[in-house]
Amino acid sequence: MRTDRARVQQVLVELVNTAEADQLRGLDDLTRLTQRWIVTEAAPPTEADVVQLRRFRARLRSLFAAEDQSGRIDVINDVLARADIRPRLAEHDGLGLHIHWFPRHASVADHLIADCAMELALMVQEGEDDRLKTCAAPNCMSVFIDRSKNRSRLYCDSQACGNRLHAAAYRARQAT
Question: What are phi and psi of 43, to 5 degrees?
Fold first, then answer.
């Protein structure tokens, strides 16, 4: 997988996971996130971007929770129809040659929506959308992309959620 695709997948996961502790409350949060995500060739972030991305985040969560591909396809097609997608080649910030899916000087929200929508479409087309998962831990709402060979990963973080559940199961077995 190209580095830029892996980077967009990470942005996708992080965007959805901003909901759990509400890390996208306002302009300061969005500015911090866009710097970490290396959002380039976009207009400065605005409050309108925050509102638009919070709505988009909820739609993305439904993709991770979808039981089958047809449910994902409907949502992705709807997002693609609404997105301003204008592919062009770009090379910057040490990321190598890659495709920008958004027009020059697009809003931050339009930039991220176009990138995420196209990455999701490519994942579906490649049969990789079953890697979009929600954490199996009962008190965790995080999503993740399962990169295991057999697509069997259950937890967003095996060190945190996985170990906590395994330890609880062990204690329950020992108590009987």
Answer: -65, 160
Residue 155 lies in a domain: no
153 in any annotated domain: no
pTM: 0.86
Question: E strands, the chain, where?
Answer: 88-91, 97-100, 132-134, 143-145
Residue 163 has pLDDT above 80, yes or no: no
d(CA 3, CA 11): 12
Alpha-carbon torsion angle 72, 73, 75, 78, nearest 10: 170
Task: Please list the residues that pair with 132 across neighbouring strands.
Answer: 145
List of residues 6+ apart from 68 with CB closer than 8 A:
none
pLDDT, tens only, 113-126:
999 999 999 999 99
